[in-house]
Specification:
- The protein is of the alpha+beta class.
- Helices cover about 40% and strands about 20% of the residues.
- The strands form eight sheets. An eight-stranded mixed β-sheet has the order 6-5-9-3-2-12-15-14, with no helix packed on it.
- Helix 1 (about 235-250) crosses helix 2, helix 4 crosses helix 9 (about 570-590) and helix 25 runs antiparallel to helix 26.
- It binds zinc ion.
Length: about 900
Amino acid sequence: MMFREADATAVKLSEYKPYDWLIDTVDLDFQLDPKATRVQAKLVMRPNPKGRRNAPVVLDGDELTLASIKLNGKTLAATDYDVSASSLTIKNPPREKFTLEIETIVNPSANTKLMGLFRSNAIYCTQCEAEGFRRITYFPDRPDVLSVYTVRIEADRDEAPFLLANGNPVEAFGIKGSNRHYAIWHDPHPKPSYLFALVGGKLDFIEEPFTTMSGREVMLRIFVECGKTQLTGFAMDALKRSMRWDEKVFGCEYDLDVFHIVAVSDFNMGAMENKGLNIFNDKYVLASPETATDIDYENIEAIIAHEYFHNWTGDRITCRDWFQLCLKEGLTVFRDQEFSSDERSRPVERIGDVRRLKSFQFAEDAGPLAHPVRPDTYREINNFYTVTVYEKGAEVVRMLKTLLGERGFRKGMNLYFKRHDGDAATVEDFLKCFADANKRDLSQFARWYSQAGTPELAVRGSYDAKAKTCTLDIEQMIPPTPGQSAKQPMVIPLRLGLLDGKGRDIALKDAKGKAVSDNLIVLEKAAQKFVFSGVKEKPAISLNRGFSAPVKLATNFGEDNLRFLAKYDSDPYNRYDAVEQLAMNELVASASGSNKSPEALIEALSNALDNASLDDAFLAQLFSFPDESDIAQKIGGNIDPDAILAARRKIKRDVGVALSDKLAARYQKLTNHRAFSPDAKAAGRRALRNACLDLLAATEGGAEHGRAFKQFEEADNMTDRMAALAVLCQHPIPERETALAAFEQRYRNDPLVLDKWFSVQARIAEADALGRVHKLTKHPAFSMTNPNRMRALIGVFAAGNPSQFNRPDGKGYAFIADTVLGLDSKNPQVAARLLSAFKSWRMLEPSRRALAEKELKRIAETPGLSPDVTDIASRSLA
Ligand SMILES: [Zn+2]
């Protein structure tokens, strides 16, 4: 068998044991060759005082050919060790320090899983998180084994003029009498194997010096495929801003002489934070106005920052085991969100972050794949790089900051950096730093890490005119999730405001007349009452401001309260949220057959357009209504995706017709003839203008289609061109095919841009969408083995086109199931990710549900599947 068999026994957090051995140093020597790369590993090992005595040495391995093995310089006899498909065991190792030398041979060209050492467009590169290093050499491939690495790489000079690894360069020379050359790298910081990286190939680069806060000189370089350096300027700028920000906000300074980023075109994820040598999916490095949208720019900035911030939260302090993944990911997402908020508009960033959380994480929490921020069991760790671990993990850190305040939070972070630098830490270690630094008991708060599911709050507000008090009665409930039927109350920080009749904030006082500090109440019990005194008139209530807790609210405040908040709330998030709720109420009513006009929503949007104090990016959020899967989540069961699509189209049409004059005027006013700039303000202008375009086109007026086509033809940047194309694609008109053909012609040599062309077609919500996607899989630019292509076409069809993926005849499900089965042997990680598109299948109306279940079962019953796909299929059906 080529694959590790699906492991029947799950890994459990409660069964954690330290590794029996310490590995002080690792010396690796690579002889790079496309089909047979030779890897010599020299490990200096000694017994771990915390491990078992008389334990054998057990090393992980996967798809390796063992060439030789020596202990203290002597070749081991075949009887001294056992080698299996997944491990190498040395039966009776010495009980003192010894040296183990292992030689393996790997085939980078055949590595379509893109884990371990592989080739992408003739560039050698690696991906080791979570368990890829075992595909390079035999090693205890777990995050708590930290070692100092020295790496020698040798290759043909023509094939790989650049040879890079982690740490600092030591030397690089040609080898006399041959076309070979080598480079040696040394990383002084002990690290786990998942942070190892190597790159070799023909590359171009840009470089810029950076002086750290203590005055150290660092050389920053971004390496790309030849001929692409002109697309790296924005990424370099984002990197420098990230480094400065981390010094200023967290006191974190960079710690090597060089910092390298390499962009490659075949990559399973977004990017990887290998110490000193970050490897990126080129999608998140390369940008120009002609090829990248504003969203691309924003993502590049955020991901460059995210991977850089891992240098401290991930690399300097790593995770003890993979259950603690949120320790580095949730925390680092929080840090990159804060960076983006400081660099751009804080309210707009927050709205975007919460929208993503609600769309994807709330959906995950409500379905069969729900799991705690820190899972306590897994079968395949690759399947736990989830929105729950990342996005909800970030929300938990944000709540910690809300509860402790800015200063208290910083004190906790400082202690964490000081106490755990160089450690493989746990969530408990992290929380203890905040508890110790602030003398606070955080044991109940820790439930956010262990209890899955989105808490639901039932809130009853009442006003007593005689006593001049406003009372909130709040109950919390967390729905059952797989493996967790009963839950305990959480600590839920709720920021709130009470507004007087003129929309001004009332100074909050508790029942005893004491000021409510920070406008914050903290729910800790299953049911709790909060009384506010000195309230002279019945107030409007604005609860969970800034989305201070990731919870769902059900209140008795009524629609008038929402209309009032939509007009006056001083908290930008809740003001946005009030409009979103008005839209959602209309969408849900319309999906269940109501035909009334969305008056309240139209009024709120009209007011917003007239309000000169609201900025363009914020307005653009108000005008992009909840998407189809958000509406499905809100309805919660017996879902008919066609009815939801129709409801969304109706609301857009109603709003477009009612506000057409204002929208057209604003569209015209925002038409910009200045040179392109990717900054947040200019991006906001484009976003609002394109939201106007979308709503105007929804009125189905022929002139409006002409407007979109004109914008497509005249655009001088990708944001406007792509937005116009997306609008045209929603309407079965001849201009659509003309525009699609022109786009293909123009960008046929740029695979990253063609991905946008694949995606926009995969989203077309019409009956022939599946046929179109099928046809596009035969397009010369499409490739099943390139993860970006797969996600752009088939991933977007499955996750971004609900009415066609959920076709009533089940053919959408069958197509995705066939794709998953076809891809599994080549790239199980991407296959498993695609399969998670079924995560909300139980919410569907009965006939679609039966069809989805049939396909899930067909997958689950297929023999010889990877652990990745087996795990998602069986959990989806459980
Ligand atoms: Zn990360």
